[in-house]
Amino acid sequence: MNAVFEVSNLKKSFGGLAVTNDVSISMYPGDRVALIGPNGAGKTTFVNLVTGNLAPDSGDVRLGGETVTRVDAAGRVKRGLVRSFQVTRLFQDMTPAEHVALAILQRDGRTGRMFGNFLLMPGVMDEVTGMLHTLGLENLMHRKVNEIAYGQQRLLEIAVALALKPKVLLLDEPAAGVPQSDTGRIEQALADLPADLAVLMIEHDMDLVFRFAKRVIVLAAGAIIFDGSPADVTRDARVREAYLGSYANASHVA
Ligand SMILES: Nc1ncnc2c1ncn2[C@@H]1O[C@H](COP(=O)(O)OP(=O)(O)OP(=O)(O)O)[C@@H](O)[C@H]1O
Ligand SMILES: [Mg+2]
Predict the structure, then answer these.
(1) Hey, what CATH class is 5-87+166-253 in?
(2) pLDDT at 72
(3) What are the structural domain ranges in the chain?
(4) Are 208 and 187 in contact (CB under 8 A)?
(5) CA–CA distance, 24 with 60 (Å, rounded to integer)
(6) Spacing, Cα 53 to ligand 1 middle (Å)
(7) Ligand 2 centre and the CA of 218: distance in Å?
(8) 8 A C-beta contact, residue 174 and residue 84
């Protein structure tokens, strides 16, 4: 199978500090990858670099075999690389229906039309309703974002990302800030993602990581120190030293 997403020898320094230090990752359709590592390891920076939100010092990014290193962020979204943010970036005065409709119109290159008319576009509304139903947000679709719970806002971000019909989805801590009582819904949404989608999730909650991931990549001080199976990651000496020590000792040693 050909890689749908390939990053090679990516490098970025901030004021002499190598935040991304020669990072190479390949992903395939259907991948479920967790990207883990200590605070400040460079996980979010990696996402910013590959999505075109930040320019690398060197290295290449390929999507479906095409080099996109010089393509801007919108062009990468159009080619199927979609991310969510560590901190919610929704519009507080807009509704979930409006957010998803906007994503659909952007995807289809129809943003030139009068946006307010989307309620009258049956095709768009059907897709909006279907997407919000999948994420359990259908009954909130016409409420303002600032009126819905944070966990539901994070689900809406996943809905917006999926409405863009990604081939590769990068999720930066999708459950961060969500009360424990609501993380189950997010986990269910992750479990229900399209089977052929390649997903990379950054996450600190190791229980969630081990339930989600079929492959784990560990980043420490800007470099990949492990890329392999969830079963092996807890046994890896470097990973235990850099990040996982207490978790591995507590519950996941075979
Ligand atoms: N724009 C910037 N300018 C200077 N330094 C930056 C910038 N963005 C990130 N950094 C630094 O790069 C390092 C990596 O940050 P990054 O946000 O990628 O870490 P992270 O792995 O996502 O951490 P966390 O788990 O806390 O989200 C940190 O030392 C951070 O302070
Ligand atoms: Mg981060």
Answers:
(1) alpha beta
(2) 95
(3) 5-87+166-253
(4) yes
(5) 9
(6) 14
(7) 13
(8) yes
Q: What is the pLDDT of residues 109-131, one digit of tens each?
A: 876 555 566 667 778 899 999 99
- Using CA atoms, how far residue 106 sits from 124, 160, 179, in Å, is 12, 11, 32
Cα 46 to averaged position of ligand 1 atoms, centre (Å): 9
Q: For tokens 């990581």, name the residue.
A: 209
CA of residue 67 to ligand 1 center, whole Å: 25
Between vectors from CA 200 to CA 199 and to CA 204, what angle results, nearest 5°? Answer: 135
pLDDT, tens digit, 9 for 90 and up, residues 45-65: 999 999 999 999 999 999 999
d(CA 117, CA 90): 21
78-62-101 Cα angle (round to 5): 15
pLDDT over threshold 60, residue 251: no
Residue whose CA lies nearest to ligand 1 atom number 29? 40
Residues with CB under 6 A from ligand 1: 14, 19, 37, 39-45, 86
Cross-strand bridge partners of residue 169: 82, 199
Give me the residues near ligand 2 (ion), CB cutoff below 5 Å.
43-44, 86
* Size of the chain, expressed as the number of residues it contains: 254
Nearest to 238 by CA among 118, 228, 75: 228
* Structural element, H or E, at residue 109: none
pLDDT of residue 105: 87
Per-residue pLDDT reduced to its tens digit, 178-208? 888 888 989 999 999 999 999 999 999 999 9
For atom 18 of ligand 1, the residue with the nearest CA is: 42
Assign 241 a pLDDT band (cuts: 50, 70, 90). Answer: confident
